[in-house]
Amino acid sequence: MQLYHHPYSLDSQKVRLALEESSIDYTSHHVNPITGKNMDPSFFRLNPSARLPVFQNGSHIIFDTIDIIQYIERIAVFTLGSEKVTLSSQEVIEWMQRIQAWDPKYFTLFHIPEKYRFTVSKFIRRVVIARMADSPDLASSYHMKLDEVYETEDKLRDPDVLEQSKEELNEILDVVERKLNESTYIAGDEFTLADVVLIPVLARIVLLDLEEEYIRSRPNVAEYWNVVQQRPSYKKVIGKYFSGWRKYKTLLKTWCFVRIRSMLRRY
Question: What is the predicted pLDDT for the residue at 83?
Fold first, then answer.
């Protein structure tokens, strides 16, 4: 089984947490979207949307995050047996879908300093144009990605886009806060795939230095966040890259790559 992913990708974190919690072996392929590696023709042919993650098991390729997580769950049931692992309840599935419906893209970008955001966006545009020239048979798909980059830049000029994203996030966290008043985890007293989908959202909030506003202001969510950070899966998938000083190392490495390649005009 092959997983194409990157630590920066929220959906990649969700899938990796599911894999680690299920103790399923897989081959990891890092594809950094900020440096445009997801635009390389080999990956683009595999997934023309260029989005992460992509899960491949033989000839079976899955792009949708929830579909991947549920596929992993079925593998775990088949491998370990139904006595040890059971399929998610309807409540868990509904929680997963509700959390997944929130798109972190604009929320994240709005909270990144404009100078960094502009530099990366400009770099990605030039990467797409360069790949288009290298692979003319994929030109139409690359044109669509280029249009998507411009659309993103336009939406970032609209403050209403951020307000809507914040409102949707607050609604989810308010419901989670009330639920955690009744149970240890969001779908009961056992850790489930619903928690797997929520944890990266909280991690993204912390990465953006918004913990006080969105997590600490909700006592149950704050306590929950302290608990889930102790899980081995969290430490391996997220903590390894973003806990404490590690986040500066992870981000600096990518920023230096983008700046150097931009100066050398190597896309």
Answer: 64
pLDDT tens digits, 236-263: 999 999 887 877 888 888 888 888 888 8
Q: The tokens of 140 are what?
A: 């139409």
With 90 as the cut, is the pLDDT of residue 128 above it? yes
Say if CB 177 and CB 218 are below 8 A apart.
Answer: yes
Output DSSP code: residue 216.
Answer: I
Residue 239 and residue 132: Cα distance in Å, rounded?
36
Q: Residue 56 phi/psi, 5° resolution?
A: -130, 125
Pair of tokens at residue 155: 């939406």
Are residues 177 and 156 in contact, defined by beta-carbon separation less than 8 angstroms?
no
Check if the beta carbon of residue 87 is closer than 8 Å to that of residue 226: no
| Mean pLDDT, residues 108-122 taken together | 92
One-letter amino acid at 229 equals: Q
- Residues 6 or more apart whose Cβ sits within 8 Å of residue 4: 29, 31, 43, 46, 47, 52, 53, 54, 55, 56
Question: Residue 27 belongs to what H/E stretch?
Answer: strand 27-30
The chain-wide mean pLDDT, for the chain, equals 93
Point out which residues pair with 3 in neighbouring strands.
28, 55
Show the beta-strand stretches assigned E in 45-158.
54-57, 60-62
Q: Please give the Cα distance from 142 to 175 (Å, whole number).
A: 40
